[in-house]
Amino acid sequence: MKLIAIVGTNASFSYNRKLLWYMKKHFVAEVEIEIVEIAELPLFTEDSLDLPKKILEIAEAIEDSEGLIISTPEYNHGITAALKSLLEWLSWGAIQPLVNTPVMIVGTSLGKQGTVFAQENLRQILSSPGLEAFVLPANQFLLGHAADAFDTSGNLIDRQTISWLEHCFRNFCLYAKSLKPLRKLMETDADTGASEHE
C-alpha cells in the first residue's frame, strides 16, 4: 500500500513533520509513505487559469496513492493558511484528487489538547464540494506537549501514545482497503455518465 503524507505547515521546523517521519519509519514494514512538503507552494488565486506545476505534482501523487495522511498543527483554533491554500488549489482545478480519497488526520502541538480544533476544522473543509474526501471517522490522534513527546532521534517516547497511533493507523489501512471497491465503482459510474453525455 502506498500513502501520501502532507506536512500541514510551511514552517522550517515542525513537530508535525517529525510525526510523519516517525510514522514513515515506524510503519515501513506495512506501507510505503511518501512525505510531501508545502513550503514552496504558491498562494491560491482564482486568477490562475492552470494549476501550478508543484500543485499538479501533488495532485497526481495523491491520485496514484491508496490514501492520504495529513498532519496539521493548530493556529488560532484552525489549520494553517498554507494547508488551506493547498486544499483550495486541489478543489478548484479540473483535477480534484481528494474526491472519494481515504484520509487520515493526525496532529501535534505544544498545548495539552493537541490539535483538536484544527482537526475538526480540517474535517469540515474536507467534506466540502470539490474535496469530498472519505475522512477516517473517530480514531483521532491528538498529540499534546509535542516538545516532550519525541526523543533526540525523532521517535515517540510514550508507549501508550505509540500504541494509540498504531491502533488508529491500522484502522486507517483497513478503512482504505475497504473503500477500494467502492472507489472503483464510483469511478466507473462517473466515466459512464461522462460518456453518455459526450
From TrEMBL:
In the Enzyme Commission scheme, what number(s) does this protein have? Answer: 1.-.-.-
Q: Which GO terms describe its molecular function?
A: oxidoreductase activity
What are the NADPH-dependent FMN reductase-like domain coordinates in residue numbering?
1-147
Q: What class of enzyme is it?
A: oxidoreductase
Q: Cross-referenced InterPro entries, in alphabetical order?
A: Flavoprotein-like_sf, FMN_Rdtase-like_dom, NAD(P)H-dep_reductase
Keywords recorded for this protein, A-Z: Oxidoreductase
Q: Does the keyword Oxidoreductase apply?
A: yes
What is one Pfam family matched by this protein? Answer: FMN_red
**Official protein name in the record:** NADPH-dependent FMN reductase
Q: What is the lineage of its organism?
A: Bacteria, Bacillati, Bacillota, Bacilli, Lactobacillales
